[in-house]
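Supplementary Methods, section 5.1.

A reviewer requested that the exact input to the structure prediction be made available. We therefore reproduce it here, unchanged from the version used in the analyses.
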Amino acid sequence: MLPTLNGRIQTRIFLLAVVGSIWTLIITPVLPTGAPLGASYGATFSVLLVTLVLGVLWELVYHGIQQFRWEKDWPTLFGLLTGIPEGLLVWFLFAGGVTWIGSLTGPAFVIHFASTWLIVWLVANGPMRVPFIHWRINGGRLI
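The structure derived from this sequence is encoded cell-by-cell as follows.
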C-alpha cells in the first residue's frame, strides 16, 4: 500500500517531532557551534522546526511530481536524497536572515541536519514498519 499525501505528512511530522527531537537532544552538546549550550539548543531546535514546517510544503511539491510517475511513489533512495534540496533551502533561509533561529556554524548545521535526516529516514524505512503495521495498511496514515 502506497502512503497517501496525508499519511506522508503525518509520518513526517511524527518522525521529526519524536525521533528528530530525541536525536537533537543527544547531538547538540557535541556540535561545533562555539555558542553556549542553551543557544545551541535554541538554534538546533529552530532548524528542526523550520525543517518540519517546510517539509509539509515540500510534501505537496513531491506529491505533484509523483503524479507523473507510473507507480505514484518515489524509489526509497529518492526519499533519502530529497534531504539535499530541503537542507539547502533551510540553510539559505538560515543564512539569509531568519535571525530567530540563532547562530549555527556551517559544519554544525550540516552535521545536525544530515545526521537527523539519515536517522529519520532509517527509522521510517526500518523499525517504524514493525510496531506500526497499520501504518502500511492504512496508506501511511498514523490515525
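The mean pLDDT is 84. These observations are discussed further in the main text.
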